[in-house]
Amino acid sequence: MNRHIIRSLKYLVFISILYIGLVWLMSVTAYPEHIDLQMLLKAQLYSEQGLWLVTAFVILSLLYPLFGFMRRTIEGANIEDRVRIDNAMRVYGFEYVATEGDALIYKARGLFGRITYLFEDRIEVRAVAGGVELRGIRRAVARIAFQLSAYITNSRFEDKE
Known about the structure:
This protein is an alpha+beta fold. Helix content is 58%, strand content 20%. The protein has helices at 2-30, 37-45, 48-67, 82-91, 110-116, 138-155, and strands at 69-75, 94-100, 103-108, 123-128, 131-137.
């Protein structure tokens, strides 16, 4: 539950910064000489529509941890096949950082990669019956799972010597 609140707050801050940036851009391009950012934000947020917007931001932030993270199982994969797992992770900018218990831990490379995932860039790879399970932020897990599945499918056509 504590992690849910932290993720919600991170997303609320991110979406607020994005909104303020868009309002700033609008103030610079649409009203370059008459209205500054503070006046435009007051006009927008102190209206009924502004109240609905803030309410929508809070609700979206509270729900984000529920739909923003996922688990995906890749059938036929083996946790011992680190070359394919590492390659799938590397394609999307993740690198191996540690092993915790039975899980391989990967994080985004570089500060920019970490920022784009709001520092929620931790991907766990665990062995499960019949394959491996990826856990983490939805967009990264979905992409990596697709890539790893392709590697597993294509491995059937490799020469077995």
